[in-house]
Amino acid sequence: MYNAKRFFVTSGTGTSKISKINALDSALIRAGVGDLNLIKVSSILPANIERVHELDEGIGTFRPCVLTSAQGREEHLVAGLAYGFRRDGKGGYVAELSYSGDDIDFGEFNKKLKDVLISMGKERKVEITNIKTVCAELNAEPNTYGCALAILVYLQ
Questions:
Q1: Stretch 24-53: mean pLDDT
Q2: Measuring CA to CA, which residue among 45, 94, 39, 33 is closest to residue 65?
């Protein structure tokens, strides 16, 4: 059983002339998590979990994460996470959002991201407090694949 006691939040962007997967790999490296084996999980933060601002994990370490990415070619890409905690102290939630296209307003994107998290709390009939966001934005150049990602990594 895996019980996370800490979490690390980051974002990154990457590009590649070769493929979307290479752009994703580049974004993971720039986000500081490119040498981890990441396992996507759902978006629940346990009670008493603490955010850390540095990641010190060995190459190849398996870590659960909440990850969102926007990938495309010659597009404007935005990806973000919002996280916050229940007012009753029983844990928290992470919301993910991504978008690709030319008509992105970054302020509206950030507001919608927070609204998604607030809605998660309303669905559970709890108030979410201390909401934080992390986002990445990229304009992929002509003939270039791009990736913008945001990630929350659970740590022991």
A1: 97
A2: 39
* Distance from the Cα of residue 39 to its chain's centroid: 13
pLDDT tens profile 104-134: 788 899 999 999 999 999 999 999 999 999 9
Pairing of strands 37-40, 62-73: parallel
Looking at the structure of the chain, the number of domains it has is 1
Q: Contact, 57 vs 34, CB < 8 A? A: no
Give the C-alpha separation, 99 to 77, whole Å. 6
Q: Is position 134 within any domain?
A: yes
CA separation, residue 37 to residues 44, 130, 133, 153 (Å): 20, 29, 24, 11
Q: Is 123 helix (H, G, I), strand (E, B) or coil?
A: helix
Residue 49 placed within a domain: yes
**Could you tell me if residue 1 is inside a domain?**
no
Residue 131 has a pLDDT of 98
Domain hosting 34: range is 6-155
**Pick from 154, 122, 32, 20: which is nearest to 77 by CA?**
20
